[in-house]
Amino acid sequence: MSMEFVCVSEAPPRKMFVEELKSVSMKMHTREQARDGEKQPKQPEERSVSKWDPTIDGYLKFLVDSMVVFDTLEKIINMLFTLHMMNSGTQGWKGVQIWQKI
């Protein structure tokens, strides 16, 4: 007695991940971007960037902004630590009480 197997439907071959990624990225690609790949690089004088001259005023503003950001981040971290330790059963611990005052 011989058995014969018949495949009812063949699954289409699966695309590889890279092929899927390429097809999706090409759909997002604009015509202008496609033309950019064909253009020759610009001459150095055509693509010059304005020279940046740092100033003391600009540097001080940067330092103040950085200080504000880091102080705010530190307050958030301290507040989260306090909230985390509040219900941990260590409220009587002196170190935690110091953190709660901040």
Secondary-structure blueprint:
Elements: H1 17-28, H2 31-36, H3 56-86, H4 94-101
Question: Would you write up a description of this structure?
Answer:
- One of its GO terms (biological process) is phytochromobilin biosynthetic process.
- Residues 29-50 have a biased composition (Basic and acidic residues).
- The chain is mainly alpha-helical and 102 residues long.
- The chain has a domain at 55-102.
- It is 56% helix and 0% strand.
- It has 4 helices and no strands.
List keywords for this structure.
56% helix; 102 residues; 4 helices; mainly alpha
Write a concise synopsis of the structure shown.
The chain is mainly α and 102 residues long.
Shape: flat
Overall mean pLDDT stands at 71
Round the Cα radius of gyration to an integer and report it.
31 Å
Number of DSSP strand runs: 0
Contiguous runs where pLDDT drops below 50 for at least 5 residues:
none
Helix content: 55-70%
Structural class: mainly alpha
What summary fits the major beta sheet?
none
The ordered string of helix (H) and strand (E) elements is HHHH
Number of helices: 4
Query: Beta-strand level of the residues, as a percent range?
Result: under 5%
**For the terminal residues, how far apart are their CA atoms?**
86 Å
